[in-house]
Structure formats: C-alpha cells, structure tokens
Amino acid sequence: MTDEELLQKWIAEHEAPEICQYCMCDDDCNHGAVCYGGEPIFPACAETDNIEELLDTDSIIEDIKAEMHENAMYAEHIMQRFTQRV
C-alpha cells in the first residue's frame, strides 16, 4: 500500500477524537459548533471538503507505519513461541 492509500484508509476509518489529534488547528478548536448569540462558529474541519489540508499527514503516516511494525514484531514473536512448542 502506498502512503497515500494508507492515509486515505486511516481517514476513512477514524473520526474525532483520533483525527483531532493530528489536526493543525487542534489548539484553537472548540471541537464542535459554538454560538455566542450570533451566527454559529464551526470548526475548520466542518467547513472544508479536504480534511487533509488540516492534518499533519506525515505524522499520521509515521504512526501507521510504526503500528504496522509493532504488529509485525508481535506476530513474529507469537509465531516463534508457537513453533518452539511444536
């Protein structure tokens, strides 16, 4: 899978708060619509068609690959334990 495919799959499978962790607007975000008596104010992600513009995509891909590596190492560990017992 390419990095772009990994990213698209991750975005499709996750929602807030996981996505918010990688949002570049996270510090200034109310994480929902707010209204102070006038027009409601929506978070930046609600007003864009391209969520990737707001995300630190490099960090997402790094974390995906780290998790994949960790899972592969765990699977190898389990396989080694299984084959030692047989």
Summarize the structure.
The chain has helices at 3-13, 57-85. It is mainly alpha-helical and 86 residues long.
Protein model, in words:
This protein is mostly helical and 86 residues long. Helix content is 47%, strand content 0%. The chain has 2 helices and no strands. The chain has helices at residues 3-13, 57-85. Helix 1 crosses helix 2. The model has no long low-confidence stretch (mean pLDDT 91).
Mind sketching the topology for me?
Layout (H helix, E strand, L loop, with lengths): L2 H11 L43 H29 L1
Throw out a few tags for this protein:
86 residues; mainly alpha; 2 helices
* Largest sheet geometry: none
Total strand segments: 0
Instruction: Return residue spans where pLDDT drops below 50 for at least 5 consecutive residues.
Output: none
Helix content: 40-55%
Distance between the termini: 34 Å
Number of helices: 2
The chain-level mean pLDDT equals 91
Given the C-alpha coordinates, what overall shape results? elongated
Query: What oligomeric state do the depicted chains represent?
Result: single chain
- What string gives the helices and strands in order? HH
What is the strand content?
under 5%
Taking all Cα atoms into account, the compactness measure Rg is 19 Å
Structural class based on helices, strands and sheet pairing? mainly alpha
